[in-house]
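ingest -> fold -> write
write: protein_1
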Amino acid sequence: MTAEPHIVLERWSGPWPDDDPDAAFKAEVADYTRLDPTVTLQGLSARTGIPVGALARYVLAKWATAGSGGLMELGPQTLHRLWEPIAAAEQAGTDTVRLAAYEQLKGMLSWLRVPLEHPEVY
């Protein structure tokens, strides 16, 4: 059996350049790493009897797989259909076409929300 991984929960505040394509993500990492998640994990562990390390592994695994889980829920065909207006607007490169793509995407998402907003329909 291989050894379990050990990680250091470190705080991080950058730096990163203004034109960094991952700047928004890095800013979010900097914000969240100010917090101490072990306080929450210790409380949850005390309440549930689940070891802190198992809870930390669960939280990390669940967050790390959320993108693929979302894709599985949405489905690749729907994702491609939702992406088409965005891709076309970016190719055209004008604000007018981007606004039209927004309206098209808004319409597509509104029909996906119908069962959530109006369950009586089903």
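write: protein_2
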Amino acid sequence: MTSMAESENGRLLNVNADVAAAELARALKPQPLKVVYLSEQRGLFDGAGNKISQINLDAEYNYLMSQPWCRYGTRLKIKESKELLDTLPRSSSVAIIHPSDLQKELFTDSGAGTLIRRGNTIQKTSSLSELNLVKMKEALLKSHKSLDAEAAVDAFLEFLKVNPFTAYYDENMSGLAIVLPPSADKPATIASFTITKSGWLSNLAENMFSAIKMDNPSLCWKVSEEDENLVWFFEKADGSFKRNGGVLFYCGSDFNADGLVSFSRTLSTLHTLR
């Protein structure tokens, strides 16, 4: 398909290929689950030259549009992708990839380029009174498998009553993250990160983590060595080390050896559910 058009009087017109693809996607019935743009650049890149693997529009659009590096072709591509996805089912996505990656990216999300989705709207609060405590407790219990799970969750909720925190969650609380603020000896800490099976499949975890990172460039968190999503957490971290059956992750922080030892001792005393 060439991006050409013909006017009513027979004149051939050059049409932007992205615009033509978007109009075709809107016209197709049933509507497409994925719209793929082929690009020699292999995706979109931020101001530091790093490839942007995923964009969750509901959570990141305004932030991206405010960045000084988001201009020209990058800005236009994000803007047009949003306008297109706003007219398609929420499950639809836009992928910007190199032609050589088309075969493996067409039916999967291999991470070869930039994947753009509407995503989930992530809400946040720092007050327990603004949360549905019944749903919150149910979500926290899912991440705690021990026999004393209910007692541990109750103790954690009591801890939150008297300590500052920020909760990140979606409308149905299919995902819930509790982040404790930074202190003199540690960065902000993810004390709980609970996502349902369907939430993992719908990219909710990515949306949640992106929202947390926008507020907290430096982070640390602890995950069990047996966690089924351990690989995903490794991908999100700048560094990690094992201690007492768990993996301690950090990003956005530059620790030396002594700092890591102190950091690990501090984490072991936190009210975490992982």
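write: annotation protein_2
Residues 269-274 have pLDDT under 50 and may be disordered.
The radius of gyration is 22 Å.
pipeline exit 0
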